[in-house]
Amino acid sequence: MRQKIVAGNWKMNKTYSEALSLAAEIGNYIEQNPLADHQHVVLCVPAIYVVDAEQETSSIDNLWVGAQNCHYKDSGAFTGEISAQMLQSVGVKYVIIGHSERREYFNETNNLLKQKVDNALANGLKVIFCCGESLKTREKNDYKEWIEEQLTESLFHLSMPQLLNVAIAYEPIWAIGTGKTASPEQAQEVHEHIRYLMMNIYGAATANKVPILYGGSCNPANAATLFAQPDIDGGLIGGASLKIDDFAAIIKAMP
Ligand code: PGA
Predict the structure, then answer these.
(1) What is the per-residue DSSP string for 173-210?
(2) Which among 22, 23, 70, 246 is least buried, having the fewest CB atoms inside 10 angstroms?
(3) What is the set of active-site residues?
(4) How far is the CA of 123 from the centre of ligand 1 (A)?
(5) pTM score > 0.70 for this model?
């Protein structure tokens, strides 16, 4: 069975004590409801909390801490930045790269993201690589080409073994934080297309191993129907990952 992932993207939310209580609550939930071997839950907490979150959750099987971003170099004069090497050195397992908020507010380009992906993988992190179109691109019916360009320019230079350490998150920008979810059919159409693109380059065996997550207003009410689609392998969850009851319900919906 393909790896399934439910990853919480906490974005810039929670104080220290709030963050640790939430990590502990999620840890307790998973201890009581253990994950199967093919299931991973990832907490992409603000970077300042990764060390404590890692300590809080390290004894729980298949529960991992992730970061929301990293630099493309190992070290150097880059004031305010955090490297994949640093994240790896404190036990972080995953990093989100290419979130639409990073692309939009921090001008991250496909070429920059390619360098970040390379550096994160070289440092042994697993990458959750985000792609997805704006409302304008969707309305122009150009979304498949747009996503193909994002993946081609940032991801499809990877070798087969490298790609197996990547999960792709399809996050239509018009669905992020808007309460407007892509329908299961809309999401499945794009996920299937992403798998088809991978098949053309890497072959079916590899393409069938890469998890493709859906993100964008995923919540307890729609998670199970989304996750039931053949090419949806879990979710990248923003708002609903900040509340224990909602996040636990989404974990429970993971196939
Ligand atoms: P949302 O965010 O679930 O709040 O829409 C998803 C994301 O941005 O990863």
Answers:
(1) GGGTTTS-PPPHHHHHHHHHHHHHHHHHHH-HHHHTTS
(2) 246
(3) 99, 171
(4) 26
(5) yes
